[in-house]
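RECORD TYPE: protein structure
NAME: Oxidative stress defense protein
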Amino acid sequence: MKWFSSLLVTTLSICCVSVYADEGLNFPHVTTTGYGEISAKPDMATFSVRVVETTLTAEQAKQAVDGVVERFLKSLEDIGISKSNISSSNLYISPQYHYPKSGSSELVGYRASRTVDVVVMDLAKLNQYLDMALKSGINQVDNIQLKVSDQTKYQQKARLAAIQDAKSKADFLAQGFDKKLGDIWLINDDRAPSQPVIMRSMMMDTEQNSNGYQDSNLIIRDQVDVIYKLK
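PREDICTED:
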């Protein structure tokens, strides 16, 4: 029986994370990792856009990008977007050089850029805001991130699913070796929540069936490691 218990500990603990190696697990136990995921419809978004201009002088470059940013900010404020949902970066200017095969480098102009970040509380208006950016002179869209306004609620649901998954796996393994689950010895959820994954509808292949970003789903995931004692 003692030999069987030792074999059981060895068999069920193969998947132990190395961090547990020195935790004194000198008793029969089972380690499981539970995974959970929840599907959610995004209802808001954030996006970052940038204007980049290269001109002969630093002053011209500054004036060009400042003008574009001012037009875009005014267009957002004119339709009622709160200033708290808009942020713009400081001006960045760098000299631009030409490097001929022979001879010294030549200054050919200055490159200036500024970035604007916008929080979109109504996802249905995201495309409208992006169009406004482009019409204002913005020439780069750096990032679009779909979100849910109540991220905590969905993250908790994903974590609960991970907990149930860990319990189910541990119980199945214990029964397979004619054992029963005892007390929980360790719970580890010390991980940063994973970024939601965007799943797009297959119907978006045709424009007439597409509602744009509203056809997307977010997959929110979590996981938890649990060590149970065995009886």
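COMMENT: The CA atoms of residues 76 and 129 lie 8 Å apart.
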